[in-house]
Task: structure prediction
Amino acid sequence: MDAVPALDEPLKKVLGPATAKVMAEHLGLHTVGDLLHHYPRRYEERGQLTHLADLPMDEHVTVVAQVADARLHTFASAKAPRGKGQRLEVTITDGSGRLQLVFFGAGVHKPHKELLPGTRAMFAGKVSVFNRRLQLAHPAYELLRGDAEETVETWAGALIPIYPATAKLESWKIGKALQTVLPGAQEAADPLPESLRAGRGLIPLPEALLKIHRPHTKADVEDARARLKWDEAFVLQVALARRRHADGQLPAVARRPEPDGLLTAFDDRLPFTLTEGQQKVSAEIFADLATEHPMHRLLQGEVGSGKTLVALRAMLAVVDAGGQAAMLAPTEVLAQQHHRSVTEMMGELAEGGMLGGAEAATKVVLLTGSMGAAARRHALLDLATGEAGLVIGTHALIEDKVKFHDLGLVVVDEQHRFGVEQRDALRGKGKQPPHLLVMTATPIPRTVAMTVFGDLETSVLDQLPAGRSPIASHVVPAADKPHFLARAWERVREEVANGHQAYVVCPRIGDEEDDPKKAGRKKSPEDEAEKRPPLAVLDIAEQLARGPLQGLRVEVLHGRMQPDDKDAVMRRFAAGEADVLVATTVIEVGVNVPNATAMVIMDADRFGVSQLHQLRGRVGRGSAPGLCLLVTEMPEASAARQRLNAVAATLDGFELSRIDLEQRREGDVLGQAQSGTRSSLRMLTVIDDEEIIAEAREEAAAVVAADPDLADLPALRTALDALLDEEREQYLEKG
Result:
């Protein structure tokens, strides 16, 4: 190619519409620049084969291996009743293990001719299990002849890049597309300031892109990775540093509580003393509230560490100082729950303006999307006049109609459900920007906190309040040991007989319409072997009520019920009028029923580590010990089972969040935390690159302090705009 493609050139022009369409739809790649930043996941060496021994289940893999043998079988089937069905079984090996490939029907002819014993090739497909053996059904493959011109050129050098691929586009096709756009790498503008790059001995960006896609040695790969990791860490930290800088310029009203006001009256009512951690974190928050710039603080605490109490004391301090405080919850169930627990904790202090209300009292109102018109009008009026000092609600609080008299503090519960944009919308409700406290019960390792919540200061609550009981967790292997499952239901009956209650959690609701698109499709042999759908609340509730839990009061709770029905079920359960609540993860956060001591999680392997930890935190909230049973049908050796063993082995959320991160790709964590879609990190791994992130944070802070508008660093500004555009798009999509 004589002309070098520009980085913003659409792939359609360079690669043709068909390939470009697959890249856009399946990999999110639209321009030459996007494709250049689609890095290899790993590299195969010509002389060394992949470890077939550690192939992950259910993942799309690319392996380089040698054919050991190939056999053609005929069999009778519905389509070929006279034994004319054909199946080709090919065994490939790499010295570490063997893997079976299968081809059916008309698909056997080409591989039967080409995959002769001794042939080496790259194979790509989804790993499944058949007859307890790993196999790839109908894999795509590319022969490595080693002499054909094209193969040698495409896989120049000894290292073959293996790209994150999809069933529609194999790794080697992505490699060929990169061959076409690679000359464009010389156009890449370098976002790192020259002094930083030189000071840290990093190679220039164009060189890094060439070396990551076409390395000649392992040292090339290391140099490229070191450089590209710095890019990601630094650009992201500059974005966060600019956000902190801009926030630091904003004015806010300092809120100092009155010495003998609402807060003092509330503290006097408390039947216990605050833990040392609660006192320390409260002191940090009160110091922030007393300044003339808005507080931006992240409060992370273990499930049940008393975050709500700390947040409530901050809210009361602001009301004492003449302002209003709003608490934003991710779901209606949770908003109602918070409203209930706050009014209970405050007693007559929550009855401002009512008979029997205490002298220092204020009003606490609830605002959710499903409230009746009259109740809603009333709540809005109390907010506008300042009659209500505290409001608890869902994102109905962000709507234009909601006006505050003087909003001083916003508390956001479970941050990972709210984007930065929503925080900003609520912030715009104050006459001046209100102070912001973000709470999360998902423990976040320090590096993720620096990366995702880098615009917030962090406080950690890591002690449990006195009187909290330990939770015992056990894995119940339902497939290997069915009698363990029977015993689990006996344990639930025993807890109920002792006057306690239990949760049963399922991944699905169970009234979903069957997807007609899926129903109409022909099932291929590998689909037949696909796993059954996850267990559903409605099915399990019925089976339990008729079977092992017959005679107990079993109720159902899920996200598609009417809000009033949900609230009624929660109230009955909290009042002890139901023994067993069969629910989806709507109970994951904030649901507080101290009498519930047992939880059985069905298909526990379908949940993430942090989610299981959250769910488990719903039991053992009173003085009786908690029990959590993780039911799974996954085999002993599977990764899913190891994950469950890890959850059963420790109650330390920070330890689990580390395991969770190591097992999932960063994108999930950051994407989920920021916006629910693809993360902008491709090379940086948050756990392993702690040092780079910390150093990039310092460098970014220094650059922004010296030049907040980045006037002297145009290439950095461009990279930043690209990053922020992607984020902005994601929020709009999430909308």
